Structures are given as structure tokens and as C-alpha cells.
Amino acid sequence: MGRADTTYGDGPGPDPRTTVVVITRDRRAELLRTLRILRELPERPRVVVTDNGSRDGTAEAVAQHFPEVLLLCPGRNLGAVGRNLAVRQVPTPYVAFCDDDTWWEPGSLRRAADLLDAHPALAAVTARIVVEPSGEEDPVVAELRDSPLAGPDWLPGPALGSFLAAATVLRAGAFRAVGGFHPGLWIGGEEELLATDLLRLGYWLSYVPELTIHHAASPVRDSTGRRILGLRNTLWFTWLRRPWPSALRRTWYLLRTVPRDRASARAFARAAAGLSWVLRQRAPVPADLEARLAALERARRTSPARRYVG
After folding, report:
1. Is it the case that residue 1 has pLDDT exceeding 70?
2. Under a CB-based contact definition with an 8 Å cutoff, are residues 205 and 149 in contact?
């Protein structure tokens, strides 16, 4: 695909290249705020919302106040697979994910589309995350900025081995090519498996600091539950894609370093319970990609954003 910024990138008007996808559950106030901000973006993006079985009137409020939004109501909590459902309805070449408590800064979607237009081998660009109301950078930004991975000179920023679904614009065709988010992982660190499969196809991922997304963390969250899911999914990803020596080494490292509490025990128990389907679907990455995953693993051991606490 050729560069399209002569048509869209130079002006302040609507940009039809990107659809924003949001998944939500029981966070009506946060979602309505995000939709108000997205409505005012100069790019005027299409927006698709998957309501994962909310019981607080979220769907009714969206239908009433944002009739232009495509609202999907599967009737149950699909987790990250709610994004897959939404992407099926996306007619644009690019899809920007955000959560119900995050929103894109004006101009960022346009710039992301310009970069994806210009580089067909680029599957995803991840934005700088600003925490509201403080205006400080999220701790994970340092990890993105200091990525240990090398990449081609044309990358618009550091090469990444994964991405953050709440802050990333992806090539919709690439997302579909790897099957979207794996239904077995549900939610919690679900990006790592999808990112690895994109890298396996020869795509690149990049952090682009000139793109910005804002995050006002919702008070409606179960941090312990998310920690359990995140650790379980880390183990499942490790067993699905890492060669056995690396998988066993990482599993042993996690056993030694995660908090010795009930949440960690539950995470390991849930991971073990899924071992049969994991082994059936196991497909280790080739040596060159494993070298990149190993470099990321080493770097993340000192990242304050990768601690299994809560």
C-alpha cells in the first residue's frame, strides 16, 4: 500500500482509514466519557463498542447518547475476544484499540495511519501512555522506550516484541491473519501471544512516542483477579510458543519470584488445569524469534510494570 498522507495526513478534516474498537463491562461512566472524547477527535473515526454483558445500563446509554456508534451486545463476557467480534465489523484498513478508560489524543490516529500506510511490514504502532489526571507517563512507557530489540532503520521507533491493546493501532488484515486474540486466554496479558504470531509472519511492531493515549484508570477493577489471569496467561503463552528449555526456565523463574500467596497459587493451578489444550496447540517459535523473546524476558525482569502484585 502506498503512502496516503497527501490525501489525509496534511489536513485537519476527517480521516476514514481507522476504526476505534472498545470493549467494556459495567463501566458506563468511563465509557461515555471516552466516547465523548472520541466523537470530538478531528479524525472523526468510526467507533465499534462491544459490551461484554454489562448490567449497569451501559448498552442503553450508548444507544441513547451515541447512536453513531456501532454497538455489539453478545450477551456475555467475551473478554478480549470481544475485540475480535468488533474487528469483524471493521471496514477500514486500520483498527485502533482503546479501553473504556483510555482515549486517543487528537492527531494520533492520523499519524498512526500515515505510518502504517508508509510501511506495509509494520503491523502495529503503540502510543505513549499518559496517566490522568497527573499527566505523568505510565511506568510501562520506559520499558517500551528502552526495548532491547533491534529492528530495520525504517521503523518509526523502537522495535517491540509485544504491544498494549489499550494503546495500539494495528493493521486490520494482519490482526485477522493470525486469528485475533486467542479465545483460550480470555483477558489479561492476551497481547503477547498475538504479537508473537505477528512477528512469526514477518511483521514488525514499534513504539512511537509521538503518538499519545490518555489513561484515567477506572476505580471499578479487580486487581487481584487480573493478576491471577495475567500470570496464568503468561504461563500459557510460555508453554504455547517457547521451546521447552526456555519454557521450563521461565516457569521456574516465575515459581521462585512471584508473591507466595493465594492469588499466585490459584494462577498456577489454573494454568496447570489448561495444560492439555495448551499441549495440543503448542507451536514453538523458530530460533531467531526465540532469541528476541529471550531478550525481552531478560529486560522485563527489572521492569516496575511487570510485577505480579495486587
Report:
1. no
2. no
Structural contact between residues 167 and 104, judged by C-beta atoms closer than 8 angstroms: no
User: Whole-angstrom Cα distance, residue 206 to residue 297?
Assistant: 17
Q: How far is C-alpha 11 from the chain's CA centre?
A: 28
Pairing of strands 46-51, 70-72: parallel
Give the span between the Cα atoms of 146 and 304, in whole angstroms. Answer: 13
Report which of 161, 163, 158, 199 is spatially closest to residue 178, judged by C-alpha positions.
Answer: 199
Alpha helix (H) ranges present in 88-164? 108-118, 140-145
Report the relative pairing of strands 122-131 and 136-137 from DSSP bridges: antiparallel
Percent over 90 (pLDDT), the chain: 88
Helix (H, G, I), strand (E, B) or coil at 22: strand
- Provide, for the chain, the percentages of residues in helix, strand and coil under a 3-state DSSP scheme, each rounded to the nearest 5: 45, 15, 40
Using CA atoms, how far apart are residues 92 and 87, in angstroms rounded to an integer? Answer: 10
Q: Residue 274 in contact with residue 107, Cβ under 8 Å?
A: no
pLDDT tens readout for residues 76-102: 999 999 999 999 999 999 999 999 999
Q: Locate cell 489479561: which residue?
A: 188
Task: Cell numbers for 81, please give them.
Answer: 475476544
Q: Are 8 and 111 in contact, with CB atoms under 8 Å apart? A: no
Specify burial of residue 157 (Cβ count, 10 A radius: 0-12, 13-18, 19+): buried
**Confidence check: pLDDT of 3 > 50:** no
46-51 vs 18-24, strand pairing mode: parallel
Bridging pattern class, strands 204-215 and 168-171: unpaired
pLDDT in tens, 205-227: 999 999 999 999 888 777 889 89
